[in-house]
Design goal:
With 331 residues, the chain is α+β, with helices and mostly antiparallel strands. Helices cover 41% and strands 23% of the residues. A hairpin with a 7-residue loop joins strand 9 and strand 10. The longest helix is centred in the last third of the chain and has 20 residues.
């Protein structure tokens, strides 16, 4: 059995500039980190007595004779290109629910591709090839609207920056040592603020904003903040200084992002962000495209008890920053 994993991610700065229609023209820049919450894909050979050729277990079970019959679009297209004649039993689950702004869809795509390649014992893709293959499946073959940072985060892992021109990326080295990354982890809290949202709807809104000359300037401003972070953050060597700098950039970026439309945030999100900031958090932003999912808070150590007390009756998760990207294990 192959156990393939890919981490979920936090996007700090530059989100939206990784959309190909923006980055092809202006270049996109983002900073983010993967976390210790993952998507898991299990793959083994289907029993010879099974009547079907492919079984895929997720929220439901699909049992089909041919990969072309699969309803799940990503699994269908990946298998048709990588393993069209294999008898496969595939199952998946995740540490946190999907469609909550943490890049789970692309993490699944990356984990599936990586797992299939490992199962077939073929030459494993390079990290760049793996991320680009995942981008091609989601953005070109399936024509799903969205950016391309999630596929690279899930593949490479760690806290780093990505500079995009179209679907091609220049990937930085990790900003910090594992020791400093562990210290930074203590500042990171995720607050759950609502049901799953339709990410494609917000992706379409982002696309329209890029096409609008008035809104386009906000993307330029967000890219400038990411550029400032790329210049400043790797030079810092203390968690306190990093969080102070990152908090300032994140708060300014979130303020800009809210210009993209009334559906980016809502009264519930704003009230919880304001409560968190007034209770000791130094920065806050809604993860992902907008409206619901998880709010990311950065909270200094001296304020954490007061902060956690304010949200004691809600789903508040402290997460660790994960130095690892996509991995596979043969069991």
């Amino acid at each position: 059995m192959i156990i393939s994993t890919a981490p979920l991610r936090l996007s700090y700065l530059g989100g939206g500039t990784d959309y190909e229609m923006y980055s092809k023209e202006y270049g996109g820049k983002v900073i983010g980190s993967t976390i210790n919450k993952k998507v898991y894909v299990f793959i083994n050979e289907l029993s010879p007595i099974a009547e079907e050729n492919i079984r895929f277990t997720y929220r439901k079970i699909e049992s089909v004779a041919n990969s072309s019959e699969l309803i799940h679009p990503v699994v269908r297209e990946v298998l048709q290109r990588l393993a069209p004649n294999e008898r496969l039993n595939i199952a998946t689950f995740a540490d946190l629910p999907g469609k909550t702004g943490l890049g789970s869809s692309s993490a699944f795509t990356v984990a599936l591709i990586n797992g299939i390649q490992s199962f077939l014992e073929k030459k494993v893709f390079s990290k760049s090839d793996l991320a680009e293959f995942a981008v091609n499946v989601e953005r070109n073959i399936l024509n799903e609207i969205g950016g391309v940072q999630d596929q690279f985060h899930a593949t490479f892992g760690n806290l780093r920056s990505y500079e995009f021109v179209g679907s091609k990326a220049v990937i930085s080295q990790p900003f910090y040592s594992d020791t400093l990354l562990e210290e930074l982890s203590g500042y990171h809290f995720l607050l759950y603020v609502g049901a799953e949202r339709n990410s494609s709807r917000y992706a379409e809104q982002t696309k329209q904003n890029i096409l609008d000359k008035e809104s386009l300037r906000y993307f330029h401003e967000m890219k400038l903040l990411a550029e400032e972070g790329i210049l400043q953050l790797p030079k810092l060597n203390s968690a306190k200084a990093i969080i102070q700098n990152l908090s300032s950039l994140m708060n300014e970026s979130w303020s800009i992002k809210k210009h993209f439309g009334k559906d980016i945030s809502n009264n519930i999100v704003e009230s919880k962000i304001n409560l968190g900031l007034s209770s000791g958090a130094s920065a806050a932003k809604l993860c992902g495209a907008g409206n619901s999912g998880f709010i990311l808070f950065l909270v200094p150590e001296s304020n954490r008890e007061e902060f956690k007390l304010k949200f004691k009756n809600e789903v508040l998760i402290q997460v660790s920053l994960n130095p690892h990207g996509a991995t596979t294990l043969r069991n």
